[in-house]
Amino acid sequence: MLRGKQFYIFLGTLLLLSIFILPVIAADAGTPDKVVDGAGLLTEEEEDALRSRIAEVVSRYQCDLVIVTADSTHGKTPRAFADDYFDENGYGIGASRNGVLLLVSMEERDWYISTSGTAIRAFTEYGLDYMEERIPPLLTSGDYMEAFETFVSLCEDFLRETEENRPYDIDNKIREPKTLSDYLFYLVISVAVGAVIAFFATSSMKRKLKTAVPQPAAHTYIREDGVQITKSKDLYLFSSVSRTPRPKNTGGGGSRTHTSASGRSHGGRGGKF
């Protein structure tokens, strides 16, 4: 009888544990990996660090962040590969499937950032320009971990600005943090401006001390009933023409979109590294 009770207690304990464990397992099984290092550019420790960092941003802003490295795009363009990988592997949060995917393909040294859902608005053409200036140079130098960390940090910054204010764009530019060299530059400019002001101030004071001032014309020294000038003529020796170029139209802000093979709208930007 005692053994029967122990069996039922054991069975009840298993059932109770399953209530808590199975949903977690199911959630993990249904969540695609955020860091897919098919090209083997990262260590396991680096992958885990990126996953942890990405999880923080995704939880805070409800926008998927994905990093994919591959040996090849298998005949697809980098844009098509990135868009299809996002669409076909269950990435994106919410009905709009909000998310950003960074692809790095080693075969032709291509990179591409694909945006979806609300991320299309958050990552404007201006913002993608900014990312293009910072991520590919790190890929070129082989600093892959730093490039991916920069990607995640910029994504967090862009999503925060969109939520708290509005997306970074030509009318809401990114404010670069000041460095020591910036402050030294401002100091040199301040000293130079001060020196110029002091020079003109002392020059003005010196002129006021002079009592003999040259006259601008000779008539001051000529008697009124003396020489009479009856005719005069201006003779120009040369002339110069200055031209100012018209400012070029650099286009407007906002985001551009295209349609993937699955019929979904994506934004993005790519290139070589």
UniProtKB/TrEMBL annotation:
Membrane-crossing segments per the record: 183-201
Occurrences of domain TPM (ranges): 35-154
Gene3D superfamilies from the UniProt entry: 3.10.310.50
Position of the signal peptide: none
Keywords annotated in UniProt: Membrane, Transmembrane, Transmembrane helix
InterPro entries: TPM_dom
A UniProt-annotated Pfam family: TPM_phosphatase
Highest taxon, organism lineage: Bacteria
Region (Disordered) residue spans: 241-273
Name assigned to this protein: TPM domain-containing protein
Species of provenance: Candidatus Egerieisoma faecipullorum
